Amino acid sequence: MRLLKLQISPTRGFESESFLCFLVENESEIQSYSPDFEKIKTLEKAVILSAKSSNQDLDFVSRFFAPNSGINEDPVTGSAHCLLTPVWSEILQKDHFRAKQISQRGGILELILHKDSQIVEILGEAKTYMEGEIFWK
């Protein structure tokens, strides 16, 4: 099966309000994936690819594409990992993860799923690139 000619073979897929997420068989398929951003734009949602890691120090890997939002490939995406963590918790039967987003810049995240509240805690190193305030109306 080929997903809308994106040249990936998902083993499982699901969607949220903003994302289409596809699990693939292995990390190398994600690593070698060469995205066609024009085709991804036709999906109208951001695309997350994820697979179990081949590195025994990591649980899973991912890549994130959002050309409709002006981000062809995001280096490290917290919101994507908030979606991925409960999925991998179900698959791997655990609540604490070490994950890597394998974009060109990439990054490692420590993730904890608090099952009672379904809150995902994200830990790792980050660099501040912007500060601001959000006001709810």
Please outline the helices and strands.
Blueprint: E1 10-15, E2 19-24, H1 27-31, H2 37-41, E3 46-52, E4 60-66, E5 71-74, H3 78-92, E6 96-101, E7 107-114, E8 119-123
Parallel strand pairs: 2-3, 4-6
Antiparallel strand pairs: 1-2, 3-4, 4-5, 6-7, 7-8
What brief labels describe this structure?
8 strands; 18% helix; 3 helices; 137 residues; alpha+beta; globular; single chain
- The stretches of 5 or more residues where confidence is low (pLDDT under 50) are none
Major β-sheet annotation: 8 strands, mixed
Mean pLDDT over the full residue set: 88
The helicity comes to: 10-25%
Strand and helix order? EEHHEEEHEEE
Q: Using only CA atoms, what is the Rg?
A: 15 Å
Which structural class best describes the helix and strand composition? alpha+beta
Percent range for β-strand residues: 35-45%
Question: What is the number of helices?
Answer: 3
| Overall geometric form | globular
E-strand count? 8
